[in-house]
Design brief:
Elements (H helix, E strand, L loop, with lengths): L9 H19 L7 E2 L10 E9 L6 E7 L1 E3 L2 E5 L10 H7 L3 E6 L2 E9 L2 H14 L3 H4 L9 E10 L3
Antiparallel strand pairs: 1-2, 2-3, 2-6, 4-5, 5-8, 6-7, 7-8
């Protein structure tokens, strides 16, 4: 799956400029801005939670920072590797699976985190919570047969914000 050609979804094309602007605002403010955003225009909630995930490109070796919606459950931050319903997992997911830890910024705090993919009954519960937090993801599932990994990140140490 990781060697499949990358096809950018229509949603991703529409979101590229917004994502860049959101990331810049989050970074430049030290997390004081950008943590809580209005996703109402996309069918989400007006107070949606976003984090910054920092991975290292598994091929390039370059750091990558991306804003993602997250859910908090059972002491862990949950990220959904939906990629807008694309048929291939997002690059951040492949980058994450190449290492044991990743860095995560939540508002004005940052952490080095271990990670794992939820499975079975736990995944089902986390999926329900994730859908409640961002209902449009149900429509994403109509675009692909791929199962979206739900990744649980557990902070193991505090680090400087990005």
């Amino acid at each position: 799956m990781s060697d499949a050609p990358v096809v950018v979804t229509e949603l991703e094309k529409k979101m590229i400029a917004w994502i860049a602007s959101h990331t810049q605002t989050y970074l430049e403010s030290g997390g004081k801005e950008g943590h809580i955003i209005d996703m109402g225009l996309l069918g989400g909630h007006p107070a949606s939670l976003t984090c910054l995930l920092k991975t290292i490109g598994r091929k390039s070796g370059e750091p990558r920072i991306l804003p993602l919606l997250y859910t908090y459950w059972g002491g862990e931050f949950i990220l959904m590797a939906s990629r807008g319903g694309a048929d291939v997992h997002p690059a951040w997911y492949f980058n994450m699976t190449a290492v044991d830890t990743v860095d995560l910024q939540i508002g004005t705090q940052a952490f080095r985190c271990s990670w794992r993919v939820t499975e079975g009954e736990e995944r089902d519960k986390v999926w329900e919570l994730s859908v409640r937090n961002y209902p449009p993801v149900q429509d994403y599932t109509k675009n692909t047969t791929r199962v979206f990994p739900l990744v649980a990140l557990k902070p193991i140490e505090a680090i400087a914000v990005f």
